[in-house]
Design a protein that fits this description.
29% helix, mainly alpha, 2 strands, 93 residues, single chain
């Protein structure tokens, strides 16, 4: 189930063909933020009023992860904690 509410959202419009991977790009677009080109999913344009869509083009950008995080290396204890969490979730053996 996908529901949206706000000043630019189409009222009473039923969406079809939307998938969970479309939620993140749609949220970014709704806030006027660029959508990463390699992001799975697409902006669900039908969520928004035609006026909003016509005056707000979708901006695509490359993911720049060079600014992610604070640049420090994880400690051995932090690495082990992450590995334990992933192991408990079944991602690591």
């Amino acid at each position: 189930v996908f529901m949206a509410w706000g000043p630019n959202v189409r009222i009473g419009h039923a969406l079809s063909g939307a998938a969970i991977i479309d939620v993140a790009p749609t949220i970014l677009y709704s806030f006027g933020l660029p959508v990463f080109q390699d992001m799975d999913g697409k902006v669900i344009n039908d969520t928004f009023s035609p006026e909003f869509v016509s005056s707000n083009t979708i901006t695509l950008t490359d993911a720049d992860l060079s600014k992610a995080g604070d640049g420090r290396q994880l400690t051995a204890a932090e690495n082990e904690h992450i590995a334990n969490v992933l192991r408990n979730l079944g991602y690591l053996e």
